[in-house]
Structures are given as C-alpha cells and as structure tokens.
UniProtKB/TrEMBL annotation:
Protein name according to UniProt: Small secreted protein
Keyword Signal: yes
Signal sequence segment: 1-19
Keywords of the record: Signal
Length: 143
C-alpha cells in the first residue's frame, strides 16, 4: 500500500509539468548509445505511458524510459524513470530489456507511442491526464 501511495503522489507531481503530445514512433528494448546532449528533464516513478504520451520540455525530440521493477505490481506498470532530451539521439542503439525509447520523429522502429493508455494507479482504468496533472478516467482528449 505504501508503494501505491508513493507512486500516486509522484505520478501527480510529475504530470504537472508535462504536455499531452504522444510520441510518433518508439523502440522497445533499446536506448540511444550516444545522444548529442544530456537529458533536460528527468521524471521518476512514472508510467511508461506517461513518458510516451507527454512531453516534458518544449523542444523534446525523444525520451528514454527505464523500468523500475519495485513497482511491477502497481496498476499501470511499468513504472520507472523518464529522461527527456532536446537533441538528436544519434543512430547507434544499445540493447536493454528495461529500456523503451519514445521519439517525436520517425526515428523509432515502430509507429505510434507503443505503450497504450495511461492508467489510473488506483484501479487500472484507462484514461488520460490534462497538462495540470488531473487524471480523466476513460478520457482520450485531454488538454
């Protein structure tokens, strides 16, 4: 229960500074080996779906999500760390079972955001989050 409360609070806090803008492509199981910059913003204990659906910077080009397995049993898993970048990812990718890279370009191996809906950590119901962090159960047109 304690992990659930911590995740819920962190999800809401992390979402407040995000803007709904789903990734256009993604690559699961890999991350850029040598991006041309460091992450601009890092969000911890968030859903992979939040990382793929919401930009964290105004010029975000890609984000790397790394799974944190201590949250594997929480509704909405996987949870982990999302690092947002404003630069070119480069072309070399490193394999990692816990990595998922989301692109706001055509650089990914698969089309779309890849993860599915953002889920309510309380009951697992799909929905979306407004830019102010408000979760809308069943929603798909958040602002």
């Amino acid at each position: 229960m304690r992990d659930f409360v911590i995740v819920s609070v962190l999800v809401l806090a992390a979402s407040v500074v995000a803007t709904l803008d789903p990734a256009t492509t993604n690559t699961n199981g890999k991350f850029p080996t040598k991006p041309s910059c460091s992450p601009v913003k890092t969000s911890k204990a968030i859903q992979a779906a939040e990382c793929s659906h919401n930009t964290r910077t105004s010029k975000q080009t890609f984000a790397v999500f790394t799974t944190d397995h201590k949250y594997d049993k929480v509704n909405g898993a996987p949870y982990g760390t999302c690092e947002a970048y404003n630069c070119d990812p480069g072309t070399a990718m490193t394999a990692s079972a816990d990595a998922w890279t989301f692109f706001w370009s055509g650089a990914g191996e698969c089309d779309g955001e890849g993860v599915g809906c953002i889920k309510n950590p309380v009951d697992g119901m799909c929905g979306c989050e407004n830019s102010d962090g408000t979760f809308v159960p069943g929603g798909s047109n958040c602002e």
